[in-house]
Amino acid sequence: MTVQLYCFGESGNAYKCALALVFSDTPWQARYVDFFNGETRTAAYRALNPMGEVPVLVSGDEVLTQSGSILMHIAAQTGKLGGSTKQEQAEILRWILWDNHKLSTQIGTVRFLMNFLPAEKRPEGVVPFLQGRLKAAYTVLNDHLAARDWVVGDGPTIADLSCCGYLYYPEPFGFDRKDWPHIDAWLDRISALPGWKHPYELMPGSPADRT
Amino acid sequence: MTVQLYCFGESGNAYKCALALVFSDTPWQARYVDFFNGETRTAAYRALNPMGEVPVLVSGDEVLTQSGSILMHIAAQTGKLGGSTKQEQAEILRWILWDNHKLSTQIGTVRFLMNFLPAEKRPEGVVPFLQGRLKAAYTVLNDHLAARDWVVGDGPTIADLSCCGYLYYPEPFGFDRKDWPHIDAWLDRISALPGWKHPYELMPGSPADRT
């Protein structure tokens, strides 16, 4: 069965799920969400996902939202990328929650403010504040990867895919891979996996379409 | 076996877990973390939790961090508060992730900036920006609770405990229960459950101790 992923190129949260579908060999189709023209605020979209967010995964009768839930679902369905012991599964959940709590949420906001919002609408002070908090998060991840190749266990899991979701984007948001050598090497390991593609190649839509 | 929860009164993330321990009849002890004097930045604390966060649950040889992981662990261990079907379990995970992504993270930051940081250190512009984002999150939760008593299923689960974690605190952070009638009624339902206590009564430490 082919699943459908509601996504758009700029969404790092959708990208996490697209990578999981690719790396788990799940047949999937991208369904483009016209986020920048307000599709997620329409009644039709809210009927699909009352939280109003991207991504959404439609798999037969099932409609899943929240990238972390979708990642866990893909791992459970395919038996891939989900760790091999109960302890690894618990660690994976912990890192996905951490990513949602401390990493991706704040990168998404900073990147949006710096790149996708007209400068005159950008609220004063928010970007440097969130960048300060993000520095603490990059430190935690970089230190964690100092002595290990993957976030959990001995191979790639959905924990890696959750944490890397925003880190391949070219737009500036205050993250330079050179400053974080262990994150840098880990991103190289992920992008060397068979089937890996850059977000703007894996999903429809990119800033180039709007210029 | 008595578990140990590293916590302090002001931590809404710890409060979620303390409530889950109470409502699941799990014997527990509070281990006070002196957050405001820097304990979470010490080497000893980082050895316990490299993410540097509160809460931590110590259960025999297991050390768990991230409130969402701890909540899932308590539900799995006790068979309580975890929903009764696979679909409910998936919904619970979805709402815990949403809470981590959109609700508790941002309330925690706003509440800290408005109440626990000296006014001269408060960055300009951040509070109104995050309050704007929180209004969208309160709307999602309030609408969800319009036609139902609990976040998932027909009774209280860890999804309720995750989402309510910061909403009983008295310090101002831009949330007035009167503005959100369905959230208000739901908070009354939770606080009517046997054993419920206010965060400053359930866990050691409160602003009153520092005045």
UniProtKB/TrEMBL annotation, chains A, B:
Q: Which keywords are on file for this protein?
A: Transferase
The cross-references to SUPFAM superfamilies, in alphabetical order and at most eight, read:
GST C-terminal domain-like, Thioredoxin-like
Q: Which residues form the GST N-terminal domain?
A: 1-82
Which CDD domains does this one have? GST_N_4 (cd03056)
Q: Fetch the InterPro entries from UniProt.
A: Glutathione-S-Trfase_C-like, Glutathione-S-Trfase_C_sf, Glutathione_S-Trfase, Glutathione_S-Trfase_N, GST_C, Thioredoxin-like_sf
Q: Which residues form a coiled coil?
A: none
Q: Which domain of life is it from?
A: Bacteria
| Domain (GST C-terminal) ranges | 85-211
Q: Molecular function terms in GO for this entry?
A: transferase activity
UniProt record similarity statement: Belongs to the GST superfamily.
PANTHER family in UniProt = GLUTATHIONE S-TRANSFERASE-RELATED, HYPOTHETICAL GLUTATHIONE S-TRANSFERASE LIKE PROTEIN
Know the name of this protein? Glutathione S-transferase family protein
